[in-house]
Specification:
Blueprint lengths: L1 H27 L5 E5 L8 E5 L8 E6 L6 E7 L8 E6 L16 E9 L10 E7 L14 E7 L1 H4 L2 E5 L4 E2 L1 H7 L13 E8 L6 E15 L3 H39 L9 H9 L6 E8 L2 H8 L1 H18 L5 E6 L2 E7 L3 H17 L10 E8 L5 H17 L5 E3 L2 H4 L1
Parallel strand pairs: 16-17
Antiparallel strand pairs: 1-12, 2-5, 3-4, 4-12, 5-11, 6-9, 6-12, 7-8, 7-11, 8-10, 13-15, 13-16, 14-15
Helix pairs in contact: 1-4, 6-7, 7-8
The protein binds guanosine-5'-triphosphate.
The site of guanosine-5'-triphosphate has 16 residues, from strand 13, helix 6 and helix 7.
């Protein structure tokens, strides 16, 4: 009982610990480091800054700074000419040999560190467009960059500051590009699985005049472990520990049951079967002819009285051992109570049982007993048929034992059916 209540309190402690650990795990999730994909802003080979001249306009863009030590800076003189005047900075991400873009579909945010100054004459709130251009053979081809999908976000730099985290799921595919392409609906959503180019462009309704840009960092980020995997891991830990606990509890119960069952059928002093144990063992045997031998140590009270209970116990243990060694594997040897012992020998008639009894007595004479005692026993033997119950046979053996005691002890008496019936 003690160990059961102790294990329950251990379990409760474990549950509290796990609950706290889970809360802590949930709390630290936002603090976990992000996986980053930073775009190289110093590789001028892969950066193109241009005005809208290619579209027939007269806006002009020029690089101010593109060295390794200083942030990429450029200016744009936005002029009327083209219907939708613009300046753009394209940063190529694709591998030039394989023409493969970068798969950024698992990334969640785009960190942008920049600086922007609108024309001094501007009287409106200026915007900037950011395009993440994706290639997919289903709608684009590598020879025509205008066919790359325009995942677009247009924002007001004045309201967001110079370091912003843009969630990728707020990007939209440019409406004008969709109208031009006439794509089926399933291809109309944003895509980042093969990003070829990232583009920073003046706003749709940007004012004419000089716009100044400086780009310090462009980094795609995603959690090291996705939120769903993280929560799933917590759930898996709970499920695994719950299952382990149930498994462990079942094993412990099984072991305890075995232990208590063992205790219930065994005499603790001699470790022979007790009365209950005999009944259990008998259930495992087919009804068979057998002989019952009932042993009672002679004048055992004297042993206790003279040498004390400790020595008495040692004598009982020594006798139990002797029975264990003398009896066959298939026999049942048990302590019936006090200084009385029972042996049941299957398929054994009274004459053979007498020989067993004689063997025990013989062994007793050869044993060195505690305190050099001379321990003897009286034995009642009864032969039982397959139809006779154990209780009846034991009663017969008890009658024979009584006779052995009466006739002076230290002897074997076999119950005689004919004379006693
Ligand atoms: N040490 C010890 N003594 C026990 C145990 N169980 C019973 N006894 C003692 O065994 C003694 C049995 O005494 P009696 O029934 O008078 O029998 P006896 O002295 O052997 O005399 P007979 O059987 O007539 O020869 C008692 O003193 C019990 O206290 C036990 O587990 N340990």
């Amino acid at each position: 009982m003690l160990s059961v209540s102790a294990s329950i309190s251990r379990f409760e402690k474990l549950v509290v610990f796990l609950a706290l650990a889970s809360i802590a795990a949930l709390a630290i999730y936002p603090l976990l480091p992000n996986q980053r994909f930073s775009i190289d802003l110093h590789n001028t080979q892969r950066i193109a800054i241009e005005g809208d001249g290619v579209s027939g306009g007269s806006s002009v863009a020029s690089v101010i700074e593109s060295s390794n030590s200083k942030p990429l800076s450029w200016r744009c003189e936005l002029k009327s000419g083209y219907q939708f005047p613009y300046c753009s900075t394209k940063i190529h991400l694709f591998d030039e040999a394989s023409m493969q873009g970068v798969d950024l579909s698992s990334y969640k945010e785009l960190l942008l560190r920049y600086s922007y100054r609108p024309p001094t004459t501007s009287s409106q709130t200026e915007t900037i467009r950011l395009y993440v251009r994706n290639h997919n053979p289903a709608y684009s081809n590598l020879d025509d960059f205008s066919s790359m999908k325009y995942n677009e976000l247009e924002f007001q730099p004045s309201t967001l500051g110079d370091e912003i985290n843009l969630p990728l799921d707020v990007f939209k595919v440019s409406h004008w590009w969709l109208l031009e392409r006439n794509l089926p609906i399933e291809l109309s959503r944003i895509e980042f699985n093969q990003v070829m180019v990232v583009e920073l462009v003046t706003g749709t309704y940007a004012s004419f005049g000089e716009h100044f840009f400086q780009l310090k960092e462009l980094t795609f980020t995603k959690p090291l472990v996705s939120a769903s995997n993280y929560y799933l891991a917590i759930v898996i830990v709970w499920v695994a520990l719950s299952l382990s606990f149930v498994f462990w509890k079942a094993l412990t119960l099984k072991r305890d049951n075995r232990k208590y069952h063992h205790l219930a059928i065994q005499d603790p002093l001699t470790e022979l079967l007790n009365r209950h144990g005999i009944q259990e063992k008998l259930k495992q045997h087919q009804r068979a002819a057998a002989s019952v031998l009932l042993f009672d140590l002679d004048h055992f009270k004297k042993v206790n009285d003279v040498y004390g209970h400790g020595v008495g116990d040692e004598v009982l243990k020594a006798f139990a051992n002797l029975l264990r060694l003398t009896c066959r594997q298939n026999d049942i040897a048990a302590r019936w109570g006090g200084e009385e012992f029972v042996v049941i020998c299957f398929d054994t008639d009274a004459q053979q049982a007498k020989i067993v009894a004689a063997k025990v007595r013989q062994a007793m004479t050869g044993l060195v007993w505690p305190q050099q005692l001379n321990v003897t026993t009286s034995i009642g033997v009864a032969e039982a048929g397959a139809d006779d119950s154990f209780e009846v046979a034991l009663n017969w053996a008890d009658i024979a034992l009584y006779q052995a005691k009466e006739q002076g002890r230290d002897q074997v008496i076999v119950y005689q059916h004919a004379t006693n019936q």
